[in-house]
Specification:
The protein is mostly helical. The protein has one domain (14-143). The protein is built from six helices and two strands, in the order ααααββαα. It has a two-stranded antiparallel sheet.
Length: 144
């Protein structure tokens, strides 16, 4: 919690909590829309909401960049004979469908991402500043 606000003014309302959760669930899209609306109406966001919106947007960008960088590296390594077999096996086991819920199929990677979003959502609904080791430090350093 930021030290410049008193305890009573720093308690997030339920609507702020829901907006923060929706920002995590939609990979920052609701947060971007909420930031645009706040800019248009020239209103200030409370630190709790600003923290979670910025963190969700930063996580989305970080995930996008990491995924594309990993795809680029794996495509290059696929031409190396020994690594080709290892990469193919890893790709198969990480992307095999473990949970089949009708049209929804979840691999190991999808399950970890889903559990991570649930962790962020529960912490946010409880009114807490959810801490992610490197990401939260970057967000706190740029917001507060």
């Amino acid at each position: 919690m930021p030290p410049c606000y008193s305890y009573q003014n720093n308690i997030p309302t339920m609507s702020e909590r829901i907006i923060a959760v929706l920002s995590y669930v939609t990979s920052g899209i609701v947060g971007i829309i909420w930031l645009l609306l706040a800019t248009i109406t020239k209103s200030n966001l409370k630190p709790f909401l600003k923290y979670h919106i910025m963190q969700s947007i930063f996580l989305m960008l970080l995930y996008y960049l990491a995924a594309h960088l990993l795809i680029f590296i794996l495509n290059i390594l696929a031409y190396v004979p020994f690594f080709n077999a290892i990469i193919s096996t890893l790709n198969f086991f990480l992307n095999i469908s473990l949970v089949n819920l009708g049209p929804f199929h979840m691999s190991i990677i999808n399950i970890f991402i889903f559990l991570f979003i649930i962790y962020l959502s529960i912490g946010t609904l409880r009114g807490r500043y959810v801490y992610i080791p490197w990401v939260s430090n970057v967000i706190k350093g740029n917001i507060f």
